[in-house]
C-alpha cells in the first residue's frame, strides 16, 4: 500500500471513530445539549468521512455550508466596551449561515437558511450540499435534516466538521457570515 493510500485509509478509519452507532437518530430536531455525540446516520442524507469530504472539496463538486453559531455578545459588558467576535475558520469556499442549526428556528432565521441554501445551490434542488460545523455538534445534523425538508435531494452531512478537517491538516480560511436580510455589513471581527 502506498503511503498516500495508507493515509486515506487511516483518515477514513479515524473518521469512522467519530460516528456513534449507539446514538439513535431522533425523529425530530435536537433542541438541547448541541455539543454531544451525534448519530452515525441522517435519514435521507449521505454521511461523509473527512476523506470523502476532502475529495468533494478538491473536485469542487459540492457546496460546503457551515452552520456553526456566532458566539453571543457577553451580557453585562460595561458601556462602551468594544466586542469582537472570535474569528471563524472554515473549509475554503464555504458559505457560513450561522445560527441555522438550532432545533427551533425563528421565522426570520429559517428564511435566512432557505435563502442561503437557494443561493448556494443556484436554485438546483439536486445540487450536492455538504453541511457541517464541528465534531459532536448537532447543529449540522439539524440543519442538514431541515434542508432535506425543503426538498433538496443531494445532502451530505459531514459530522466531523472543521475539527476533522483541521486534524487532517487540510486548509482552513477565516470566514465571514452570509448577510442576513436586515444587515448591511457583516459583524466586525
Q: Can you give the mean pLDDT?
A: 87
Classified in CATH, the superfamily of the domain at 45-71 and 88-182 is Rhodanese-like domain
- Outline the low-pLDDT stretches: 1-17
Number of strand segments: 7
Alpha-beta classification: alpha/beta
Short overview:
With 189 residues, this protein is of the alpha/beta class.
What does this structure look like?
With 189 residues, the chain is of the alpha/beta class. The chain has helices at 3-18, 50-59, 107-121, 138-149, 161-167; strands spanning 46-47, 63-66, 88-90, 95-96, 129-132, 155-157, 173-175. The strands form 2 sheets. A 5-stranded parallel sheet has the order 1-6-5-2-4, covered by helices on one side. It has a two-stranded antiparallel ribbon with strand order 3-7. Residues 1-17 have low confidence and may be disordered.
Core attributes:
5-stranded parallel sheet, globular, alpha/beta, Oxidized Rhodanese, domain 1, 189 residues, two-stranded antiparallel sheet, single chain, 5 helices
Provide the fold topology.
Layout: H1 3-18, E1 46-47, H2 50-59, E2 63-66, E3 88-90, E4 95-96, H3 107-121, E5 129-132, H4 138-149, E6 155-157, H5 161-167, E7 173-175
Parallel strand pairs: 1-6, 2-4, 2-5, 5-6
Antiparallel strand pairs: 3-7
Amino acid at each position: 500500500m502506498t503511503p498516500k493510500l495508507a493515509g486515506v485509509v487511516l483518515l477514513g478509519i479515524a473518521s469512522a471513530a467519530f460516528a456513534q452507532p449507539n446514538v439513535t437518530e431522533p425523529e425530530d430536531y435536537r433542541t438541547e445539549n448541541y455539543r454531544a455525540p451525534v448519530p452515525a446516520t441522517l435519514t435521507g442524507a449521505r454521511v461523509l468521512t473527512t476523506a470523502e469530504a476532502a475529495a468533494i472539496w478538491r473536485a469542487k463538486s459540492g457546496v460546503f455550508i457551515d452552520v456553526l453559531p456566532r458566539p453571543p455578545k457577553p451580557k453585562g459588558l460595561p458601556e462602551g466596551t468594544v466586542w469582537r467576535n472570535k474569528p471563524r475558520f472554515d473549509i475554503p469556499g464555504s458559505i457560513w449561515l450561522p445560527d441555522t442549526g438550532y432545533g427551533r428556528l425563528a421565522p426570520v432565521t429559517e428564511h435566512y437558511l432557505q435563502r442561503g441554501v437557494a443561493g448556494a445551490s443556484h436554485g438546483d434542488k439536486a445540487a450536492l450540499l455538504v453541511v457541517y460545523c464541528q465534531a459532536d455538534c448537532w447543529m449540522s445534523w439539524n440543519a442538514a435534516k431541515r434542508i432535506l425538508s425543503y426538498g433538496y435531494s443531494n445532502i451530505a452531512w459531514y459530522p466531523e466538521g472543521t475539527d476533522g478537517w483541521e486534524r487532517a491538516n487540510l486548509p482552513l480560511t477565516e470566514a465571514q457570515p452570509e448577510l442576513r436580510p436586515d444587515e448591511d455589513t457583516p459583524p466586525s471581527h
